[in-house]
Amino acid sequence: MKTKLSVNFAGIKLKNPILTASGTFGYGYEVADIIPLEKLGAIITKTITLQPRIGNPQPRIAEAGNAMLNTIGLQNIGVKAFVEQPLSKLSKIKTPVFVSIAGSTAKEYIEIVKILRNQKPISAIELNLSCPNLKKKIICHDLPLMKEIIKGVKKFSNVAIIAKLSPLITDIAELALCVQNLGADALTLTNTYPAMAIDVKTFKPKLSTIKGGLSGACIKPLSIRCVYDAFQKVKIPIIGCGGIMTGEDAIEFMLAGASAVSVGTSSLISPKNLINIINELESILTEKKINSVKKIVGFLR
User: Taking a C-beta distance cutoff of 8 angstroms, is the pair 129, 148 a contact?
Assistant: First the structure.
């Protein structure tokens, strides 16, 4: 008996609960020659903005022990070019596509959603409300602005809306409940954690912006706690994200309450790790004679 890995996430049928994390997998189609993309649960694109962004100056990626620091700054080609190029290529892949979007104002988010409306093969839109690498305030810390964004995009979107939140909050469960009450269909928990590193040879910061976002295995316990706390309060599904390197890591997030997980740093190291995680997840649950991955979601509660 093999474990069934298929899940229904916010009304979207996924082959399995393993997704790519925004920002670590490009637009998605670039690695089609490396791994079979149709085996993934879904592809979450890098974040798209209304206008093209060149991102932050170099250096913007650095190692920090067993972790990674980044300060990419949302580099992307802009939504109109995204529709013309990457999205048309993604339409040839039989895998759901979740498009991550960001803006400085509610008007920008809404305008992006209007352009993406009815575009195939988009199955969901992930609102990046938590980017730690920009000079401006993290959006999910500004409740009136977040309310304006979520309610605004819901009026024009014809697909599921996922809110990606920052872990830098006193009570992540209350913030998650607020997002649910505003009409979001799902959550992504969480984004990277602000951190910095200094090169002792040059006495200079390793990143051009001094501080950046920390990712990798070291943030997994912090992110799992966020998922667990939010799961106690909300009814909408959660994508767990942060430090997932193995199938066991994915199971931990799901036991805490995640219906799906998105893999970031591990897939950046090697896209093939995504397939390894899917296989490990299936192998572990089959060995434990659990016939459906859905049975472990929130098991800890």
Answer: no
Q: Which residues of 211-248 are buried (b: 16+ CB within 10 A; e: fewer)?
A: ebbbbbbbbbeebbebbbbbbeebebbbbbbbbbbbbe
Q: Verify whether residue 131 is a known catalytic residue.
A: yes
User: How buried is residue 114: exposed, middle or buried, by Cβ count under 10 Å (0-12/13-18/19+)?
Assistant: middle
Closest CA to 47 of 30, 28, 22: 22
pLDDT in tens, 199-216: 999 999 999 999 999 999
Among candidate residues 131, 140, 178, 218, the one labeled active-site is: 131
Q: Which of 199, 167, 209, 254 is nearest to 74 (CA)?
A: 209
CA nearest neighbour of 5 among 253, 284, 230: 284
pLDDT in tens, 44-103: 999 999 999 999 999 999 998 889 999 999 999 999 999 999 999 999 999 999 999 999
Report the distance separating Cα 92 and Cα 209, nearest Å.
38
Overall CATH class of domain 7-296: alpha beta
